[in-house]
Structure formats: C-alpha cells, structure tokens
Amino acid sequence: MHRCESASRAAPSRRSPPNRRSRGAGGCPFATAPDDLSEPVAWRPELTAVTVILDAAPAGFATAAPVDPRALGALLADLAGIDGRHVIVADAAGEHRLWLRDAAPSRPLAAVIPLDKDFLTRIASLLRFHRRLLGRAAGPLPRGWPLTAYRLARLDLMLRAMDLRQSGATYREIATALGRDDAARLSASDWKMSASRSFVVRLVRDGIAMMNGDYRKLLRIR
Fold first, then answer.
1. Are 30 and 20 in contact (CB under 8 A)?
2. Is 110 helix (H, G, I), strand (E, B) or coil?
3. Which of the four, 85, 152, 188, 206, has the lowest number of CB atoms within 10 Å?
4. Which helix (H) or strand (E) covers residue 202, if one does?
C-alpha cells in the first residue's frame, strides 16, 4: 500500500522493531514489513476479538491460578510491551493470543471480557484457552478467524487493482491485467456497461478504502 497511518495497529512494545519499509511510494515504517509475514503479529487486543485478556485477580479469590504461557506450548510471539505482555501460543487447532496486563510471574490471574460488540467471540476464545489450560483439546478457532481462502484471494486482487490504478492504469487495462479477457475486445459503449468494468471499479474502490483505514476490519470476525 502507498499510504499508512502514523499510529501502529500492532501491540506497543519496548523492543524497537527493525525499521523495515514498505515497497510503496510512501516508504512508511511498519512493525512487521507487509511483505514479510514469516512471524506472527501481536495485534492490538481491542482490535482483535480472539485475544484473551488476563489481569491480576481481585483480592479474595484464593483459588485463582497464575498462567505461565511457556507451559502451554511453543510461543510463536512473546513481546514485553508498555502495557504488559503479548503472547501467541501455538496450537494445532488454532493459536491462542494472550494479553497479560499484569506480567508479574506467579500472580493469580482473572480474565477480562469487555462488554463490546465482540463479546461472544471473546467468550469463545476464552473457553478455548481454558480448555487448553485444563490439558484438553482447545477446539477450533471462532468462525471467521483467520481469513478464508476466498477473502484472501479477493484481497490480493484488490491490492493489485489499486496499485495499478495508482500507477496510472485505466480500468480497462486493470481488467486485462487481472485476466478479464473480454475487456480488450469490448467496444467503448459495451465496456462501460460490462460486468468486468463494474468488478474492477469495486476492487479499486474497496482497495482505497482498505488503504485508508478499513484494513482494521480484517481483525474483526463477521
């Protein structure tokens, strides 16, 4: 993408990430380079409904237990941030994303469930994590996380279309580049009314919206 916001949507960390830059014209620094997804990204918990939020248990809850993520399995990510610890635990059925707001070891913990529109997803993610704590199979991730193959394919087309458009390509040229063979054969009047043109216009429109902030919606489950 050729633009980025000044505020990172990755979880804040005390560790300074390498100043890798996107290949877009803006060259904005990212916590994780957009073309390098070899390592999981710890997204901000308020944007990622599958993140389990853990904090110090209230006084009086004598049976509340501490949580050592290292005892749950391989850690795909473990970041000490200014707001606590962000951890991603590997699981064959689907990773567990944890935000330990109180990172002190051996501190009894409680789960925090914000009363927001992602409440049911947060509950489902917490139940998966609780089953893992008990040594049982956690079960599948909530439906809609991660992205389906169809949505990933459309995102790829969207970004390609947007890049071509911003490079000066016409809608007809974009359609041809994306494999719409009829685009080159249609007359000017037929092209204006064609399904291929409508398809490309939607791709470019949605790609620009994604670039301008709608990408955050990808972290929400529908």
1. yes
2. strand
3. 188
4. helix 195-211
